[in-house]
Request: fold
Amino acid sequence: MKTEIITPFFFEFESDFVESLRCIPMIVRYKLDTCGIKLKLPEWVKISVEEKTQLAYLPCCLNSEIDQYGDFVNKLVWKYTGHEAGLLASVDDSWNILNEVPEEVQTKAAEWNCHGLIQKQWVELDTLQRFALVKLSRSGHEGKNFPRAMQEFGLNH
Reply:
């Protein structure tokens, strides 16, 4: 598996909340998954906009960066809530599997009448795009962003 440097980036489908950062953008979600931290929305909203912006821009690729990022998130959660950040029991990183489109993504595409993704298209997406589609496919996420993401990624013709 190739290691891809994830640079700070906000998707167009996130534009309704990126300026205020009232929701956790995909770049931060990706980094939280990378360091195994579960940050809840009630915790996120307490963090200052400047610190949220830092979370989007801090590197989180190398092991040392992942450790530092996790420490920073933990310090922020402690600072604003008085408790430690939750840990993810495990990370289902199906966005890194390139030989097939994850079933959850195919199912969500069918629900929104988006044409099915083929494996060739899946492989051509970058890691953050695949991550976004997987996350948007899971329950508990605002559904309207899935077809918006498909269109943004050039997958909804």
In short: The beta strands are 37-38, 86-87.
